[in-house]
Design a protein that fits this description.
By secondary structure, this protein is an all-alpha fold. Strands 1-2 form a two-stranded antiparallel ribbon. The chain has helices at 3-19, 83-109, 117-137, 149-175, 178-185, 188-198, 206-224, 231-254, 260-264, 267-290, 294-303, 305-330, 334-356, 362-389; strands spanning 77-78, 81-82. The N and C termini lie far apart (48 Å). α2 packs antiparallel against α12 (305-330), α4 (149-175) packs antiparallel against α8 (231-254) and α6 (188-198) packs across α8. It contains 14 helices and two strands.
Length: 390
Amino acid sequence: MKVASTLVIATFCASAVSAFGLQYGSKSIVSSPKTRPGMVNPIDITGNRLNTVSLGETAAGSEALESRGGAAAATESSGGIDVGLLIYFALWYVGNYYYNITNKLALKAAGGKTGFPMSISSLQLGVGMLYGIFLWLAPDAREKPSITKDDLMKMLPVAFCFMGAHSASVFAMGAGAVSFAQIVKASEPAFAAVLAQFVYGKPVSKAKWLCLPIVIGGVILASVKELDFAVSALVSACIANLFAAFKGNENKKLMETPGLKERMGSIGNQFALTTILGFLMSIPVVIAKEGSRFGEFMELCKTTPALWVNMIASGLWFYGYNELATMTLKKTGAVTQSVANTAKRVIVIVGVALVMGESLQPMKLIGCSIGIGGVFLYSVIDNLVKKKDD
């Protein structure tokens, strides 16, 4: 059994405990909503349920995946089913789901809208940086990259956009409902299309342009009846989309560098390097935005275990699910990727809203369905049009 795979799976299991059922001595600073029956009940910042009805215990047992350096793992097939790929999908979805929960719990514990979103987002990257470095130092875990200074300089735009997208997403989830932030983030293809067409000179097909009004219309519908609507959440999520779109285009340019893939060695190394650079570039932003309140933040960490526990857990979840997502999507085709991303968004939006006690008004669900459906159509429309022409 490889050390890297064992640590990732162990981390996921440990972090799950911090999101559900772990009790601390600190007093919750969030008022409990009214008790209502249902299969899933809201939780407070410490992970405690707000009434006596429980979710029911879930247990997942799976064989450890053998992977080295974040590359695609060897898979088992049973009756034509790729067991390894299914486990990758499961861990990716679970990681994304628990990241959103633990991230929101950390933000609530830090004061919500008026708290420390930039400090939390930066330290989440710091946790991922330490984990990535550990994998390089641990025996038989991951081979170190052999990149040059020029390679690092070329990675800076990607790392900066990665940091910006992550920080803006954390701001959005701190300012409003997680489900609302995720719905707005689903409109990223609109930002990517505009940048590709007008900034990077890569034309987008007419069929894809026609899909964008569906995506944008869905987001607008979801916003109309959003009980937790906040302009700051909408703006922050849009900024996150802009950074993510830039990151995607810059990453394509980066990977065209001759010999870079070989010098990096693996997908895992690329993500580790991006995380390290992103963390270092986030430090000046933290100092500029929240540096004057650093003493207050440290005091909160000392007196509120829910803050630092969920912050560390969310950092590990964030690093783990991103790396697993990359490894999973690398093993699948374009259509499968589109379906997987669509399913992931639905699970996260609905699941997190139920657990966190967020609003799920009919209009919000309709808008969410239209927006995510538009994103899926955007992803596959070129293939559908091509097949029809053939």
